[in-house]
Amino acid sequence: MNPKRLIEALLFAAGEPLTAAQIAESIDDLDAGSVKGLLLDLQAEYDMEARGFQLVEVSNGYQLTTRPAYSDWVRRLFRREIASKLSTASLETLAIVAYNQPVTRSEVEEIRGVNSDSALNSLAERQLIAIAGRKEVPGRPLLYATTDKFLHHFGLKDLSELPSLEELEQLFTRPPGDAPDAT
User: Fold this and answer.
1) Which one of 3, 42, 119, 136 is most buried, counting C-beta atoms within 10 A?
2) DSSP state of 85
């Protein structure tokens, strides 16, 4: 095991400053002094290679951070993620489409009890749902279904991984503070 790469992994996983002593506690064969030496080696390595991140000393510890030269792009990424949060109406509509697909706008509205044009349009713009054909009934309304981006966004392999309605009911009827088992 390469001790420098091990320290690198610990810093990456921590996401917050770690002291040399904290790192040494996690590695059997190194003391805080040796860790500090390896941290300085990592700093020099990252600086020499001009990587997109750097190792800085902060809050009496060490932390991996983005180089200031790249901060504008990182800020844009996180601004985009914040802006991409779904409204309650959109989430409700998305759940209806996911569990009833393919489904028409009027079927979504019948379940929600309100006009859902805006939510459907927003979800389509975000490519979480798409038109999946037309229903063979008078007027041939559009049918909506979820997309691959929906699966990716929610970390699902396929629709069979959606929680069952019974699982959802148990989750939402569980008394506060009664967390599910970690097993």
Assistant:
1) 119
2) P
